[in-house]
Amino acid sequence: MNKGVVIVRSIMVICLAVALGCALTSCVKKEKIKDDTFLISLLGKNIENLEIKNFLSSLKEEPEIFDVERRYGIRDPEGHIYYSFKKNGLSFLFEKEKLHTIFLYSEGHDGFKQYKGTIPGGISFSDDRSNTNKKLGLPSQSGGGGKVPKTLKPTINAIPIHDKWRFPRYSLHIQYYNDGKISLVSLFIEE
Q1: φ and ψ at residue 144, rounded to 5 degrees
Q2: Of 77, 53, 80, 81, whose CA–CA distance to 65 is shortest?
């Protein structure tokens, strides 16, 4: 066999092995992330579910409840209700009485204390965007880029930098401050 053909075939085999290894690593990483926090298991459950009730009562904090329909006097067919636990650094969005989104806050974001529990993928609020990409892989979607001081809430003219990863049971959305540090993590069900 020609020496050139052997070299080309060898290179093709190596490339295939590297590509396969990357694909397998990606799958393993996503599978690992899928169930590494109790919070993910709560997504999609009814507000009356015993696990949700027990978890909310374990926070030992009276939630601020924000009902879109009652607050603004407008019809809300999705039935959006927010339960915010500012001292615990998290809030829950229920749609049609099912847990749709869990928000995990960094210190001071929207007046919340920092969430102290486990974040999927080994993410921590001290991570920056580069570290989250190393831990989670490349995001499914990215956006934003407006200048948002830590002291101001985002406005329509200042969309924070954010990344989103889609997993089999949920999606993970991370929003960043201008310095690249994490400001908000959201776990939610894609519809």
Answers
A1: 80, -165
A2: 81
